[in-house]
Amino acid sequence: MSFLRSLTLFWPGLPWVWLRGSRAGLVLAVAFAICLDMAITSTWIWTEFVDLQITLGVWTAVVAIWLIATVSALSAFPPPLTSRRDAATDQLFTEARDAYLARDWLAAETKLQTLLALAPTDGEAQLLLGTLLRRAGRFAEAKRALDTLARSDSGLPWRYAIGRELECLTRDASDQSGQDAASETAETLPLAPTIQDHRAAA
Collapsing DSSP states into helix, strand and coil, what is residue 51? Predict the structure, then answer.
C-alpha cells in the first residue's frame, strides 16, 4: 500500500469514496463528519446547552466509528487499479476481437462481458464493447458504455478513440432515425391506383 493511498484510512469511508467512488463509502464518510461535528460543537461551542454525559457519548460514538471503519478498511482495502492483462484476460480479449472482426456480435459481447467481469478497468475492452454495441444498432447501450468510459480513469488513454466513436454513434443514430421516418412515411402514403382499380371504376 503506497503512502498516499494509506492516508485515506484516516477518514472512515474515504478509501472507497476516493479510490472507487463508492456510495456506501460516501454515506459512511458523511455520517462520520456529522458525528464529529456534533462532538466538537457540544464540547467547545454549546457547552452550557449540552450535558457532559451526552458529549462523552457522542465522542464515544466518534471513536467507535473511526476504529471500526479503519479496521474494516485495512482488511478490505481497495487494490490499486491496473490496466495490465494476465494470460486469461489477454486470451479473452483476442477471442473477442476476432469474433468482432468476424461480425459475430453475440460471441464478441459474451467474451467482452466475461473479460470485464474479471478486469472491470480494462479500457480497451470497454471501448471495443461500446463499438460493438454501436455496430449492432444498440445505440442507447453504446452511448451509456462510451460515456461511462469517458468519465473514468480507464478511458484517459482512449479519449480520441472515444470521441470518434461518439461521433460515429451520433451519425449512425441520425441515419437510423431518418430511415425509420422514411419508412413510416412510405407506409402512410396511399398506393397508386392499379389497372384493376381503373377497370372496376369503369
Answer: coil
